[in-house]
């Protein structure tokens, strides 16, 4: 497994959208002080940082340490993960900080304190802002967690809400972690990215998107980027955003042979589609969504597409289309539809639907006439970090406004106006999507994601 670089992307606070590429040769020191006086490499003002607040250092992996005296460096707990609790650990929930002030697994007993109040935990305790629960904090935004004795230790499991644990000792950083310092939240990313959506001239927004820094299915990061374009309503696209990645996690976990993924991905898509139909038997007949997913694993780019969204890559300015549009009048799709007992007229399945592959749309899948299918095309490309610059995922509204070449040229031009290591895909994709709607007059919803594959384009 090759070593990988990381970056911190600010997702909340005064510096939202800004990012820091981590340096494997020199430590990164974050704080409000100066480089000259304190060696601070990222001086961040007016965000409640101490002069020297946090330190990130490379030791075969990147590790973060808390250097502050009072305010702390906090790690957001990932929902459904099991995190050990130790004596003196601190948990932040809203404006409340809970401290583990006693811990004895032989009794068993764990004590949480804040101010003069205490919570006693024996074998397990559920804490939430809503009933039913064992202990309630009604004034806080919705959250729920459980503390459980497990063998000779206690662990915490977060179900909902934002709950952070103070970093006490040096902690390894991994893609997907969220770090809170002062008034800022940073996401730990393997690749920089930007995403933006615009309702366009439609009455409702039916697109959704999903970015996950690591699917946690292998011993190396698997980055996940998805665009879901709904039709007939947003029910199906919202369902895919919330659930499709979990079906992929279950199928792919532990399998390092990328060449075996195709059949597993197809199974995951079919199972997710059937679950949508089961949960929404009536709505799923008339609502649907396309799905475009890009996963990056080491030097492999896995592109999964059902429908007419599209992924393209800039390879030193040359366009490489990574997916095929599933339109009913495409020869291979039209042939499949006719063999299933259907027909295509005016570029639509049975004269109705403008895509030939989609989730939902069960009126086209019932009675054994599967004229519309959710089976994706799966392609694997080799990533060449010397020449591959960025990947763009976009719904069909994006490509109604731009040709592949126009899109790549527009993005490259905007990125190249910025300095190396400061090229911001978030600013660029916002410009591109806004331009599609207001300058190029596409009528559709427009959603796009840019994933940069290098620190900068010269």
Automatic annotation (TrEMBL):
<dbReference type="GO" id="GO:0004722">
    <property type="term" value="F:protein serine/threonine phosphatase activity"/>
</dbReference>
<keyword id="KW-0378">Hydrolase</keyword>
<dbReference type="InterPro" id="IPR036457">
    <property type="entry name" value="PPM-type-like_dom_sf"/>
</dbReference>
<dbReference type="InterPro" id="IPR015655">
    <property type="entry name" value="PP2C"/>
</dbReference>
<comment type="similarity">
    <text>Belongs to the PP2C family.</text>
</comment>
<dbReference type="InterPro" id="IPR001932">
    <property type="entry name" value="PPM-type_phosphatase-like_dom"/>
</dbReference>
<dbReference type="InterPro" id="IPR000222">
    <property type="entry name" value="PP2C_BS"/>
</dbReference>
<feature type="domain" description="PPM-type phosphatase">
    <location>
        <begin position="192"/>
        <end position="453"/>
    </location>
</feature>
<dbReference type="InterPro" id="IPR008984">
    <property type="entry name" value="SMAD_FHA_dom_sf"/>
</dbReference>
<protein>
    <recommendedName>
        <fullName>PPM-type phosphatase domain-containing protein</fullName>
    </recommendedName>
</protein>
<dbReference type="GO" id="GO:0016020">
    <property type="term" value="C:membrane"/>
</dbReference>
<keyword id="KW-0904">Protein phosphatase</keyword>
<keyword id="KW-0472">Membrane</keyword>
<dbReference type="Pfam" id="PF00481">
    <property type="entry name" value="PP2C"/>
</dbReference>
<keyword id="KW-0479">Metal-binding</keyword>
<dbReference type="GO" id="GO:0046872">
    <property type="term" value="F:metal ion binding"/>
</dbReference>
């Amino acid at each position: 497994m090759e070593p990988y670089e990381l970056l911190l992307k600010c997702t909340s606070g005064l510096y939202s959208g800004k990012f820091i590429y981590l340096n494997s040769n020199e430590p990164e020191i974050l704080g409000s002080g100066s480089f000259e006086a304190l060696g601070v490499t990222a001086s961040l003002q007016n965000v409640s940082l101490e002069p020297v607040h946090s330190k990130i250092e490379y030791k075969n992996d990147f590790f973060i340490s808390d250097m502050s005296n009072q305010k702390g460096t906090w790690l957001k707990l990932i929902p459904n993960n099991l995190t050990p609790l130790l004596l003196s650990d601190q948990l932040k929930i809203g404006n409340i900080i809970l401290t583990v002030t006693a811990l004895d697994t032989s009794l068993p007993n764990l004590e949480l304190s804040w101010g003069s109040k205490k919570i006693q935990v024996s074998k397990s305790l559920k804490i939430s802002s809503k009933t039913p629960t064992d202990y309630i904090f009604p004034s806080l935004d919705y959250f729920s967690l459980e503390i459980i004795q497990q063998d000779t230790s206690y662990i915490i499991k977060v179900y909902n809400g934002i709950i952070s644990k103070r970093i006490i000792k040096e902690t390894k950083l991994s893609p997907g972690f969220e770090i809170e310092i002062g008034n800022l939240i940073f996401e730990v990313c393997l690749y920089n990215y930007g995403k933006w959506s615009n309702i366009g001239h439609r009455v409702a927004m039916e697109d959704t998107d999903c970015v996950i820094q690591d699917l946690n299915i292998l011993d190396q990061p698997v980055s996940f980027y998805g665009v879901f374009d709904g039709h007939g309503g947003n029910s199906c696209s919202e369902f895919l955003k919330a659930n499709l990645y979990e079906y992929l996690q279950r199928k792919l976990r532990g399998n390092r042979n990328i060449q075996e993924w195709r059949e597993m991905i197809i199974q995951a898509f079919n199972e997710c589609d059937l679950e949508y139909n089961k949960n929404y038997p009536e709505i799923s007949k008339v609502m649907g969504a396309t799905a475009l997913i890009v996963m990056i694993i080491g030097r492999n780019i896995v592109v999964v597409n059902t429908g007419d969204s599209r992924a393209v890559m800039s390879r030193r300015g040359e366009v490489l289309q990574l997916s095929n549009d599933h339109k009913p009048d495409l020869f291979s799709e039209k042939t499949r539809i006719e063999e299933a007992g259907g027909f295509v007229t005016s570029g639509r399945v049975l004269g109705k639907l403008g895509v030939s592959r989609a989730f939902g749309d069960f009126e086209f899948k019932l009675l054994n006439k599967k004229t519309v299918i959710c089976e994706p095309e799966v392609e694997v490309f080799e990533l060449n970090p010397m020449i591959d610059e960025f990947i763009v995922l976009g719904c069909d509204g994006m490509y109604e406004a731009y040709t592949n070449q126009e899109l790549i040229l527009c993005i490259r031009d905007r990125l190249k106006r910025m300095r190396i290591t400061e090229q911001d895909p978030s600013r660029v994709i916002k410009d591109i999507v806004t331009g599609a709607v207001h300058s190029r007059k596409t009528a559709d919803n427009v959603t796009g994601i840019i994933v940069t594959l290098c620190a900068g384009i010269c």
